[in-house]
Amino acid sequence: MKISNIIVPTLLLASMVTFSACGTDEDSVGVATSSYIYSVSVTNLTAGQPMSPILLTSNSLFTVGETASLGLEKLAEGGDNSDLVDSNGVSGSGLLTPGSSEILTLTTSSTSLSIATMLVKTNDAFAGVNAYDVSGLAVNANTTFYLNVYDAGTEANSETNTTVAAFGVEGFSTMRDDSDKISIHPGVISNEDGLSTSALTAFEKFNNPVVAVTITRTK
Question: PROSITE patterns given for it (predicted)?
Answer without folding.
Answer: PROKAR_LIPOPROTEIN
